[in-house]
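Internal tracking record. Fields below are filled automatically when a chain is submitted to the structure queue. Please do not edit lines marked as system-generated. If the sequence contains nonstandard residues, flag them in the REMARKS field before resubmitting.
Queue: standard
Priority: normal
Entity type: single polypeptide chain
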Amino acid sequence: MTTTTLAVLVPSSLPRLRRRTPPRPHRARLRPPLAVLPTLAAAVLAVLVAARQGGGKAIDAATQLTPTGSVPIDLSLHIDGFAALVAVLVGVVATCVQIYSTGYLREDPRYPSYAALVSLFTSAMLLVVYSGDLMVLLVGWEVMGICSYFLVGHYWETPEARSASLKAFLVTKLGDVPFLIGLFALAADAGTFRITGVLGAVASGGLDHPTLIALLLLAGVAGKSAQFPLHTWLPDAMAGPTPVSALIHAATMVAAGIYFTARLLPVFAASAAAMTVLAVMAAITMVGSALAALAQDDIKRVLAYSTIGQLGYMAGALAVGDRGAAVFHLLSHAAFKALLFLAAGAVIHAASTNSLTAMSRMSGLAKRIPDAYWTMTVALLALAAIPPFAGFFSKEAVLVAAEHTALGERDVAPAGAGWIVLVAGLLTALLTAAYALRLWLRTFRAAAPRPRTTAASRSP
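SYSTEM-GENERATED OUTPUT FOLLOWS
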């Protein structure tokens, strides 16, 4: 378990390394390697942990923190194939973001603190992934919240960044209050905060209030994963640096709520009402965000609403009781959404604007940045679920799971939940392809400006 502990703690060591770096101009070139090193080490350690786990029996380790007099709290880690896979995803995406940031924020005077916060953000997400105790998971959950506040507000000189960071913090905290109450209620019914113990209590019918607990927990999931009605903070969070957007949308923060629901899916499945509420929430989120994306002019806001919709797909897969489909789409979405945001950063830098309308008046943008053009093209094809890209297969898995539930071939969730997810998923797939095509055309296929015709040129 030493390797796992290092994977969690190594990213958070960056602030100490940064303090030990002499603040001299000729030492400034040392900062980028130091920024990348912790997340790179965490990614390598996560791969080693995944190789050691090997998809076999789950690995558990725990130490009691302190006697509580009632429900014990343990410093517990739990690693199964699911956790190992997601941890590798987090480490790889965070490393890519740190490498990208060394160039994107090269002239930023607050780059050292930014890099430290990104590493702490990564460490908090890894703690959520590897945690075997709900209270330990809550620590990582809340650390991510405060890191998002500082990272979204990185450009604090602008009023947009200040208001966006405050909004992200307050809206997610609005969901965290019932979430915390739900955790306490769950532990009171199960007699433990250990996730394995909670799942054992669910299997034996030991939960006295499954619907109440599930609904309280869903409030926190809605806030963290930007689901209706607590989705409003995510589009405004685009005021932060573009690499931060890639990290939040692809591998941390918003993925935490989906991961938590997938980890405790039996708790939610114990209540048919909770599964129906989750299905309705996912359906409204999917369709509403896709319609909103069609109306956006800011390229990053289009991608933000896209993330909300794809998270709705994952929540829909969980609402019909298929964790495999949800995790599959979580992984494929992380890959193409990270590509989209990092490519969007290059496009914005080249065009000097976020506006799709302004980009549509520029000619030759694709030729100026061919790497970003092809990267974004491939990622948009995956987003639009065009075969043979990964997005097609992961969305198909979600829709197939919804169809099986709707037709009564699976009894994990009510058939009504299956129909809700299936209809909303099909409609959202069409809308997603539409706004992906719109973004691509307005960004890279601008019409050549027409020459101005004067009165003299019109005369014979």
